[in-house]
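Sample entry (243 residues):
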Amino acid sequence: MALLMSQASFASKDLKAPAEAEKLYAEKKYKEAIASYESLLQDGYTSYKLHYNLGNAYYKNKELGKAIYHYELANKLEPNNEDVLTNLRIANEKTIDKIESKENFFLSVIKSGLVNALSTNGWAWLSIISLIVSLGLFFLFFISQNLVLKRIGFFAGFLCFMLFPASMVLGFSALNDKQNHKFAIITARETRTHEEPSDASGSKFSLHEGTRVRVLESNDEWTNIKLENGNEAWIKTADAGLF
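Predicted structure, serialized as tokens:
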């Protein structure tokens, strides 16, 4: 069941602006609500709730690509928020392009699930805590005279010590994904891809709104993208939202 509910009470210098947008959304004046939310972004204000609400307005206005784009921005600012993830899943189910991943599906899902289970700060704290706990348990192993406590200290300490490098690796993977992997959502209804960054170059295939692609390089006019199946192409930068 779709949530698509506006989330209120986010801070702003002009308290009337978000309240006006929420009122317009509640009155089903989605175009006006979009304009109001977009004006907040233009003023330099951003929050996951703002992008979430804007995504809802675009979804209701049948602009699927822009809805998914703002849900992705909301998810980037507030990872693993249930409302955002639910609406993102609902919107993604309505996309036209179904591109199979070149990587093993199950391995890709497991890797993505592990890396995204915690934020980069979360993995850092887990590695620190696991190291401290493992040292404490090993200390218990060496000083305890009780055989049961010695066994608990040794095995639990060993497990915590193994968790330390594992969390470090996953943390670095999450940081690498955050810093080096840029993505985009096709926001145009349909866009033609090109072999080269030129209108005169040959056309390869079409992509439709809502499709998620990896960004290899980008400038004001053209963006080089890579699909999950490994295909690469160029699209007009104006036809996609980068994040």
